[in-house]
C-alpha cells in the first residue's frame, strides 16, 4: 500500500501559525516545499464516483406520531450501499439551497464536491502540496473516503463550507468570563451567536467574585449562580428560535469557589421544583408548555476539582474556599461532606459532573499560554479560553479485514489525510468572535476521533468490559493520536508550527513523551492489539523525532466526540467510545417502511468466536425473538459478555464504562464525551465511588446519569427489566394522545343499580384496548346527566393519553354513595355505587384475569370454579389488552422482503427508533428525550443524544 509522505523542512519552526506570511511557501512559487501525496484508496485515471453504482431515492420524513411531513425531497442521488437512514439525514441536514428550487443540492456528489473542493483550493493557496498533481490525488483520496463512509467531518463543515454563509468549521467553543459586568454581558452575547449557528460553548465562571465578597461600592456581589440565570434564559430563547439544533452549553465552577455549594445544588433544587409542579398538574415534560418556568435547564454543570481537594476527601480533612479577589481562605469545609453533596446532587438530577483540573493541566501542551479552565458542552474539547476545535471521526469498522485483524497501516494513511484536511480548514475558517479566531489560528487545535469502537470490539470477539477489549481500544487510540501528531510535525516542516509553539515547546514535547510512555505501558493480550501497538510505537518514535526538529503544527490533535449525526451519516452501529446500545436495531428501508434487524456485527462476532453457520443462524434467530443472548441455543455462557450492551438483559456495569474511558484517556489530547449510565437502584455511595475512581484512574472529565432521576423525560409503567418467566411489560411513553379512528368497535350495556337505570357505551381501538366510555344516567339536561357526561369525557381522554384502565378501576372500586344495592348483572350482583358497578363491568370485559384477580373482580363462572376448587384461567397475561400507546408484537418479514436475512422481522408499527424497540423488548424505559423535530425517541451518543429518524442532536457532535 502506498504512503502519504511529507517533506519536512528544517528550520520550519520559525514559520508563522497561519502558513501564509512566507510568499515562497505559497503555491505558485516554483520548487516550494510541500506534501507529496501518494494514492491509498483510489486508482489513477479513475474518479471515485465512477467506481460506485448510484441510484435515485425519495426522501420523505414524517413525524411518526401524527404522520405529518417534516421534510420532503424526491429524486436525490446516493450510492446504492448507503442506508436510507444516512440518505435521510444527509439530505435533510446537509444539502444546501431552498427546498423545491433548482439551486437545492440533490446529489451526494454535489455535497462532497462543495466541501472537498474548498479544502483543496485552500490547501493549494496556502502551500500544503508539492504540486498540482499532489493536490489532485489529495482531492480524490478525500472524496473516496467520504463517499465510502471511512470518516466524516463534524456537522458545521457540512452546514457551512463552500456556501455563502460564514465558513464556520468548528462545533466546539470555549469562552471566558472575567469579574466585570462588561465581560459578563459579552459572555451572554457570544454564547448567543454561537447557539444561533447551531454549536455549543463552555465557560468557567470561577473568576466572578462570590456572593460572600464585597463590591468596590461596598455592597454584596451577586455571585456567579445569579448570572447563570440570565445566560440560561438567553440559551432557552435562542434554542426555540429555529436554530439547527438545541443550544448546548457547559457551565463550570472551581471547587474552591465560596459559592460552590449553591452551584452544586442549583439543578437539584430545580428538579424538585419540576416534581412539585408536575404533581400540581403543570406540563413539565421535555418541550412542555410549563418547563420554561424552570431555570438552569439549558446547561450541563460541572465542578472543577483539584488533586488537593480529592486528597482531602480521601483523608477526611478540611478544604479551604478562597475569595476570588484576594485569594484568601474565606471558609473551611469538610471535604468529604462537600464531595457527598456533589454525589447527592448528581444522584438526584445527573448534575454536576466532575472535571479533574490537575490531570487536565498535566497533559496541557501550552502551559505557558494559560491554564485550561473549561471545556465544550460535551467535555471532550479542553484547551485555552476563547478557542475552538473542529472535529472529524474515523469509522473503525472500515479498517477491519475479513480475517478480523485491524489494518493498522491503512488506518495510518487515512489519519494522515484527515489530519491534513482538518488543519487546512483553519486557513479559511470563520469564527463567531474575534478572540476565538485569534486563539484558534494561533494554536490550531484539532479533534480527530472515531466511531464504531463498540461494534469493532464485538466483531473481533472482545467484550467491551474486558482486558482484551480495553487493550485493543487503547492501541488503536494511541495509534490514531500518534499518527496525528506525527503528521502535525511533518506539516510544521512544510507550513510552519503553530504560532504559540515557540513559547510552549518544552511543555508540548513533555506531553508528547507522556503519550509515548503511556503507549509503552499498554498491556497486550492478543495478536491484534500486539500488532496495532507495534505500529503505534513506531509512530510515536517518528513523532518525537520529527517534532524535535520541526515542532508541531497543532497544539492538540485528538478528542473522542459523541459522533451523533455524523455517526448515522457513516452508517455506524455505535457512536464514539460507546458500546452497542442493543443487539436488535430499528432500520428504515430504501423503498419505504421499516424493519427491526439483528445487528450485523453479531454474526461476524459469532464467526470470530468459532461458531459454524448453522449455529450462527440459530443464535441470530433467538436474538431476533428475545433481544438478548441469554440461553441462546448453542451459545457458550463464557461468550455472553461479548454481546453485552449499554441497555438490555445484560447491560455493562457502570465501572465497565469508566474502565474503558481510563484505557483510552492517556492517548487523547482532549477528553472523552461519555455519560456513565447507572441503574435506578444505584446509591449515592455508588456515585461517590464512580467519581472517586475516575480521579484515581486518570480521567479528565466524568459525568453520570442514573436511570429515571429526571422528571423531564418519557415516563414508563415498566421501569424494571422483567425477570425470566415473567410476562413482558409494555412501555408507556410521555403523555401523547392516541385518538380512536372514526370507525371503531364498541358495545353497549343497559344496567340497573339499586333501581336506577342507565346505559354504558364503551368504544375500543381496532387492535383492542378500551379507548372511550359514555354513561347515560338521569334525565337529559339534569345535573346528574351533565356530571356523568363530564365524567365520561375525562375518563375517555385519560385512557387515550395512556392511563391504564386498571388504575381507574382501583380508584373507583368500592366507592359508596346512592344509588347502590342490587343490580341486574349476573357477574356483579351487588354494587356500592353506580361507579363501583361501572368499573367492575369494564374490568370484567377489558382486563385480563391476572389483573382482575389482584383487584378481586371475577365473573360468576370464575367464582363458581373457585368454590369448586378448580383452577382459574391460564396465568398468561393478555398483552393485547395491556397496550395503550404502542403495538409491541413483531410481525414476520415478508418472504420477498428485499435484503431479508435470518432473524429479521418487520418493525412494530408504532415504534420509531432503536431505543423504542429496545424498550418494548425489555419492558424498561430509556431515559432519552423525544426528538423535537420528528417525535421519535433519541438514543445516547456520548454525553448527548441523537435522533435516528432525522439526525437531530441535543449537543455539539
From TrEMBL:
Q: Name one GO molecular function term.
A: nucleotide binding
Q: Where is this region: Disordered?
A: 1-35, 887-915
Q: Where is the composition biased (Polar residues)?
A: 904-915
Which cofactors are reported in the record for this sequence?
adenosylcob(III)alamin
What the entry lists under CDD domains is as follows: RNR_II_dimer
Q: What is its EC number?
A: 1.17.4.1
TM ranges are: none
Q: Note the Gene3D superfamilies from the entry.
A: 3.20.70.20
Q: Which Pfam families does UniProt cross-reference here?
A: Ribonuc_red_2_N, Ribonuc_red_lgC, TSCPD
Q: Which domain of life is it from?
A: Bacteria
Instruction: Please report the stretch or stretches of sequence annotated as the Ribonucleotide reductase large subunit C-terminal domain.
Output: 170-705
One GO term under biological process is: DNA biosynthetic process
Name the residue ranges with Low complexity bias: 10-19
Write out the catalysed reaction: a 2'-deoxyribonucleoside 5'-diphosphate + [thioredoxin]-disulfide + H2O = a ribonucleoside 5'-diphosphate + [thioredoxin]-dithiol
Q: What does this protein do?
A: Catalyzes the reduction of ribonucleotides to deoxyribonucleotides. May function to provide a pool of deoxyribonucleotide precursors for DNA repair during oxygen limitation and/or for immediate growth after restoration of oxygen.
Q: Which family does it belong to?
A: Belongs to the ribonucleoside diphosphate reductase class-2 family.
Q: What is this protein called?
A: Vitamin B12-dependent ribonucleotide reductase
